[in-house]
Amino acid sequence: MKNISATVNNRHYNLPDKPVVVVCIDGSEPDYEASDNGGYIERAIAAGKMPFTKWMFENGTVTTAHSQIPSFTNPNNLSIITGAPPLVHGISGNYFYDRDADEEIMMNHTRFMRAPTIMQGLYEAGAKVAVITAKDKLRTLLGNGLEFDDGRAICFSAERADEATLAGNGIENVLDMVGLALPEVYSGDLSEFVFAAGVKLVDQFKPDVMYLSTTDYIQHKFAPGSEGANQFYSMMDSYWQQLHDRGVILALTADHGMKAKHDSQGNSNAIYLSDLLDSWIGAGTHRVILPITDPYVLHHGALGGFATIYIDNADRIAEVTEKLIHTPGIDYVMDSDSACDELGLPRDRVGDIIVTCEGHTTLGTTPARHDLSKMKEPLRSHGGFSEQTVPFMINAKFAEDLSARYLRNFDIFDVAINSV
Ligand SMILES: [Zn+2]
User: Fold this and answer.
1) Is the full-model pTM beyond 0.85?
2) Separation of CA 215 and ligand 1 centre (Å)
3) How far, in Å, is the centroid of ligand 1 from the Cα of 39?
């Protein structure tokens, strides 16, 4: 036994004598009261598509946890892998606005990270670690701090698996190892590749701890219980079984849920904040940032459940706040000092006001800036409190009674490593 431990962001991790595999199932809406029609996992189990997960419900530990707000991919993946909120790690969304430079800045570079990851801490303590992401956008952030010259770390994305090198990723010839073709970026195959590679790494690389992060392409398109969703969850179940059979501690959570954001005709529901603010305080006096915006917008048109607003004239913040509170569909409006305290966000990376909306609507800027023409299915998206509840599942019984604990998705490494 190697006896490896590390303290990272004020939490102590003492590796068990089994490999630990943590999975972030991107956009996995669970079955809880606010769901439209049950959760993805519960519906797929009911359809007989997830026999291993059904076993976990009976023999492991299955509950729900709260994700980080905004319930977006990057803030939550970073929270999960650091065990801390964005206040600590710095990544509060895909974008922020730099007031001094008058520039909207994409936060996908490691220079925006303010804390080490759990993987980095354990790697530095002597562990063998592996990180596999579906999309390449997360790879550099999640792999930050790992060195690839001593054969103890691997980090690559399914999207660019063909470009992985020993020097840059700790691994090469990934397609040969996995035995699958390079997947399309907009596909369920991108996530399957992550799991197929993860199983191979457990066999060949034998990591002490591994993080697998999928993409929510399927959940943006398909509702829980639909054929497309069940097929995807069935695929995941078969890989979870394979990981379980290899004796790993398997811990599963999600970055956020996913809800239908359209009316019965399939038309997207959106509150266009820039247009509202133009009519309230005049054009050119404010800026609305939607931190869901990223280069991969085909499946949501940059419409999500969270926005942050910068107001040029601070004297008008209270007035705008009051008007937003009375806008139908909006469920949370808070000045940023209070919101950052409450939600654990970095004050310098949000605007003056934070806004979220209810389950079946989204927040936009102005219609011309949201191209929904390429979306083939009615809008499904996430970002607010209505997508905050996520699954939290482990293939073992907890040593600790978790029912008394307020669980966050970013407690998953702690629970998997320390509590099982
Ligand atoms: Zn996501």
Assistant:
1) yes
2) 6
3) 16
